[in-house]
Amino acid sequence: MGLFNAVMSLSGSIDTDLIEDERLARHTSYRIGGRASLFLICHSYHSLRRTIDVLTREEVPWVILGKGSNLLVSDDGYRGAVITLGREFQRSVLSEDGQTMTVGAGVILARLVNDAFSRGLSGLEFAVGIPGTVGGAVSMNAGTRDEWIGSLIEDIVTYKPGAGMRHYRHDDVFWAYRENGLPKDEIILETTLRLTPANKADIRAKMERYLVRRRRTQPVGSACCGSVFRNPAGRSVGAMVEECGLKGFSVGGAEVSPVHANFIVNSGTASASDVVAVIQHVYEKVKETYGVELQPEVKFLGF
């Protein structure tokens, strides 16, 4: 039983790539993180199902990873298996109606935004500049305060380990800012989005407005995880942290961004413990000043 048996069972499996002791810093936008015991790329539904069945049988903990754009991995790594979705989950298909797209969870969100633009389809302009995969975007209902990907979704297909595929229509799921009602124990496989035909020049102009705003207000290009904390109702975390005088506050190589105070960036030498120390300090200072207990938006692995 255990990791050795899992490796033996999965080595050479069809549609499965297996790497032992893989550095997770290579797979996160923070560029931080120790090694995972196993790193598995599942290129098909059959591969994913078999991989999870083996890991479950051998009692090896596992997680699904997209592009790691909203994740902080421990310096000690993760004693388990990290699974990422490969070829079969990186396809997108435009339906005959010319405006409905079925998109795999492994598709890079930036690629989808550009694909929609090239087809003259509007609706995803708000997502320009948002990193990560479609699966990650759906799981956290990525977007702005006013526009999010959930509003475009017609259908979602998930996999419930041990049970099989599940289908959800838009109205079957609760949608809100940075959250949804999808079961947390299910893996998003694909989603169908309904977009709107529009003039390409208008789509491009809207994308450029969003991109200019992001570049002006966020540390685009820096190693970070996006927003660290979720905005409380009617409040801006960035504004509260800035008013606490914490812009530029740092521990080791981790720093509260001078551009946007709800971003903690890796200046190049940060460890996960540096980032955690900054997060804890910001949390405590905001609680002391405003009486508000901030909720993290970043996910933690291996802590």
Taken in chain order, the helices and strands follow as: HEEHEEEEEHEHEEEEEEHEHEEEHEE
Please identify the structural class as seen in this structure. Answer: alpha+beta
As residue ranges, the low-confidence spans are none
Strands, count = 20
Strand order across the largest sheet: 6-7-13-9-10
> End-to-end distance, in Å?
24 Å
Number of helices: 7
The profile of the biggest β sheet is: 5 strands, antiparallel
Q: Which class of the largest domain in CATH terms?
A: Alpha Beta
Amount of helix = 25-40%
Number of domains: 3
Strand content: 25-35%
Summarize, please:
The protein is α+β, with helices and mostly antiparallel strands and 303 residues long. The protein is built from 7 helices and 20 strands.
Question: Tags for this entry?
Answer:
303 residues; alpha+beta; Uridine Diphospho-n-acetylenolpyruvylglucosamine Reductase, domain 2; Uridine Diphospho-n-acetylenolpyruvylglucosamine Reductase, domain 3; Uridine Diphospho-n-acetylenolpyruvylglucosamine Reductase, domain 1; 3 domains; 5-stranded antiparallel sheet; 4-stranded mixed sheet; 7 helices; 20 strands; 27% helix
Describe the structure.
- With 303 residues, this protein is of the alpha+beta class.
- It has 3 domains: 3-88, Uridine Diphospho-n-acetylenolpyruvylglucosamine Reductase, domain 2 (2-Layer Sandwich); 91-216, Uridine Diphospho-n-acetylenolpyruvylglucosamine Reductase, domain 3 (2-Layer Sandwich); 221-301, UDP-N-acetylenolpyruvoylglucosamine reductase, C-terminal domain (Uridine Diphospho-n-acetylenolpyruvylglucosamine Reductase, domain 1).
- Helix content is 27%, strand content 27%.
- The protein contains 7 helices and 20 strands.
- The strands form 7 sheets. It has a 5-stranded antiparallel sheet with strand order 6-7-13-9-10.
- The two termini are 24 Å apart.
